[in-house]
Amino acid sequence: MGKPILCLDFDGVCHSYTSGWKGADVISDPPVEGLFAFLEHASLHFQVVIYSSRSHQDGGIKAMIGWFLAWCPKLEKWRDVSVSLDKIVWWTCNVTLGFPLKKPAAFLTVDDRAYAFCGLWPDPELLLTFKPWNKK
Question: Domains in the chain: how many in total?
Fold first, then answer.
């Protein structure tokens, strides 16, 4: 068996998302601080995949790959870039990243807009007050 899957949301987790939504193929902001160091460390323990609401939209995966290419501090080490509409896309920059079209059955998902369910149902009115980390 391979490593467990760690699914990272793109907007607000990898991409700082301070400008908000501009379209599936428009990514305007820099990475969240520490992203690339985290990816290198996490890849030792996990199969890391990047997933977003962009993933199934025209140009979404291509835009995310382009964003990683533009921001990776070790750009010369990126290789094996390929995009396919029917399978996970893999490439390498000291890590291997996947870009699935559908949310994978992951061991764990890191998302800035998620509620950790612990067996007790939350008050829906309280959920309406939720703010992601970068809006607090």
Answer: 1
**CB contact at 8 A, 24 and 58:** yes
Quote the mean pLDDT of the chain: 85
3-class SS of residue 120: coil
Q: Is the dihedral of CA 57, 62, 67, 68 positive or negative?
A: positive
Count of all residues that appear for the chain in the document: 136
CA distance 44 to 63: 26
Intervals of the chain under pLDDT 50? 76, 83-90
Predicted local distance difference test score (pLDDT) of residue 66: 84
**Which structural domain range is residue 67 located in?**
5-135
pTM as predicted: 0.84
Exposure on the CB side of residue 51, measured as CA atoms within 13 A: 20
Token pair belonging to 60: 């979404």
What does the alpha-carbon distance between residue 99 and residue 7 come to, in Å, rounded to a whole number? 10
Q: What is the DSSP letter of 11?
A: B
b/e map 101-134, b = 16+ CB within 10 Å: beebebeebebbeeeeeeeeeeeeeeeeeeeeee
